[in-house]
Design brief:
354 residues; alpha/beta; Peroxisomal Thiolase, Chain A, domain 1; ten-stranded mixed beta sheet; 19% strand; transferase; Ketoacyl_synth_N
Length: 354
Amino acid sequence: MRKTYINGVGCISAQKTVDTVFLEEAELNESDTILPLKIPVYKDFISPVAIRRMAKGVKNGIVASALAMKEAKVTTVDAIITGTGMGCIEDSEKFLKTILENKEEFLTPTSFIQSTHNTVGAQIALGLQCKAYNLTYVNGSVSFESALLDAKMKMEEEEASTVLIGGIDEIADYTTSLFKLAGFIKKENQSPYRVLNSTTKGAVHGEGAIFFALENEKKENTYAEVLDIEILNKLKVEVLEDKIKTFLNANSLQISDIDAVILGYNGDVEYDTYYNTLSENAFVNTPQVYYKHLCGEFNTASAFGLWVGAKIIKTQQIPEILKVNTLENTEYKTILLYNQYKGIDHSFTLISRC
């Protein structure tokens, strides 16, 4: 059975993750409820004419995918698989607003066409002239893990040797206002917005596009091997540790074999209990990492978590800004990632050094 290797990464986020090694210029923003994106130089990757017609998420996706493919030294892929929770929500808002303002008359379809969730994958395929398998998963906060799982199965079944996967989500004004009304986003008067040891509900939100070039062949530039992914819709806190042990046992591993655990803390006091349970019990003697204080919460933020994990394995170091505890290991060979959102859509991802 073929293996799955991460051979290239591309990350557009609220941090400077382009033209840097690993968060050496990271900035901790604890005063905003929405983390602004570090905009790349789009004209270096997309023609100025095309840029004007593209949504923010599409532009970021194209740049991130180009960076991943460049690093992996590949020019074509056998599949493009993306995950997104909200799709190109900015264009969706534009189209709905136009419907209301024009009383459903004289509508141009551009915003509607560009608002579909699979727009990013389609635009990447058009740019590469790739007519291969192209699929977008819209599965809430496990959208990215669904894409990763699909890619891994394609590798194992020898249906593809090179797969481009990514997680993309963007922020839009009206949707953000609804999220604030629903309590998904922290209230304005509660700063500083610290993720660890938070005492308030909601999370600081963000956006981003994170892509990975996966191949069935290990190369000089390989980051890590993707060993396994598991997705669970509902899971009680009391059985979380047992589920993780079962997941690890299926891969002939134990808790003690994990060199670092990456937890999806987002500062929501109501649901961070899942992470606290692991932090204080099963992984109390394991180096612990968190990341959403740097990228914000969004449906595919776990892709940023995988980017962090891949970087840790490749650089063999954990930046101070990512540490939950002070424990360290002499070698980071096997890393477990765990994420959930509002008590549902739990995911376990296991990666290792090659």
